[in-house]
Amino acid sequence: MKYGIVIERTRTGYSAWSPDLEGCVAAARSQPAVIRAMAKAIALHLEGLRSEGLRRPVPRVSVAWVEVPRA
After folding, report:
1. How many other CB atoms are found less than 10 A from the CB of residue 53?
2. Residues 6 or more apart from 62 whose CB is under 8 A from it?
3. 41 near 48, Cβ under 8 Å?
4. How far is CA 20 from CA 10, 53, 59, 69, in A?
């Protein structure tokens, strides 16, 4: 199962979060590192849900890029 993540540039590197998994976040110095950290965070998040007897959320987010003309 795949979950979408949002990656944002920060003053010190990158942060990421998943719109489908409330409270699941990660931060790192590089974009590849934040993606790896987010994969681990998602796995831990889902494990926590499972241990509490909760269902895994169904991914609902999709991402598309929209190109707009330069001003």
Report:
1. 6
2. 4
3. no
4. 22, 18, 6, 31
